[in-house]
Amino acid sequence: MSSYVITGAARGIGPCVLAFVAQLSTEPNNTIFALVRSKSAASHLESLPGKNITIIEADITDSKAVEAATQQVSALTGGKLDYLINNAAMLRVGGPGLTDFSRSSSPEDLEKELMDHFRVNTVGTVHCTNAFLPLLRQGSAKKVVVLSTGGADLDLVLKANMSKSAAYAISKAAVNMVVAKYAAEFKQEGFVFLTLSPGYVDTSATATEKIDEEAIKALTKKATKVLSNFTALTPEESVKMQLEVIYKWKVEDSGAFVSHHGNKEWM
């Protein structure tokens, strides 16, 4: 029996964590806690058949709300947690550009764009991880996973000339370092910290925001030039591969940033 907390589990933007909840809940002995910013946006979760899923409303940028969620989880698990999967993230398509000079944006708009992404993707992850650490210490797995993106890898960005979604990529690069810092501090306690990219996942079926089709086409074209085996994954395929990486990852490799393949093959 294992217990899991998965944040940002309502929506299909980015790595479709709805698929995480769906797959993990098929094992009746698992206990799944899905943290969502708003239950009103969690219709996909509520439709899942698993009886071992608890939906908790908590905005990860609100440390008090996250602490309250921690107490709810603790009450149902006897003060323990095995896995924390930090997925909640912000990705604003079409925001002020950092490198696209054809778009005009004020310094104030640009700063807001950066800080909004940093507050959710980096600081929010820290709040959530800190809140659940006491429960994880009592768990059997002691695994903390943060879902990131290959777009935060310097080599891929430079090879594919990926200048779009800069605020998102910058905030994810920052959270990659957050994970490394946690790993450095908690490795001796047997914790496993891992930053994991889900690959290129088609999440249109559960998306609650309009998808920028032109941006997707441009990304696909660039990725195809760099990666000969580039292909879009279904959420189910990606999650299956991610879970294989999560379960096999060991303490000695804590703090790594890898893909759903368990290496630097991002797509």
Automatic annotation (TrEMBL):
> Is NADP one of the keywords?
yes
InterPro entries in the record, alphabetically? NAD(P)-bd_dom_sf, Sc_DH/Rdtase_CS, SDR_enzymes, SDR_fam
Q: Which Pfam families does this entry report, sorted A to Z?
A: adh_short
Q: Name one GO molecular function term.
A: oxidoreductase activity, acting on the CH-OH group of donors, NAD or NADP as acceptor
Q: Which UniProt keywords apply?
A: NADP
Domain of life of the native organism: Eukaryota
Q: What is this protein called?
A: NAD(P)-binding protein
Organism, per UniProt? Answer: Roridomyces roridus
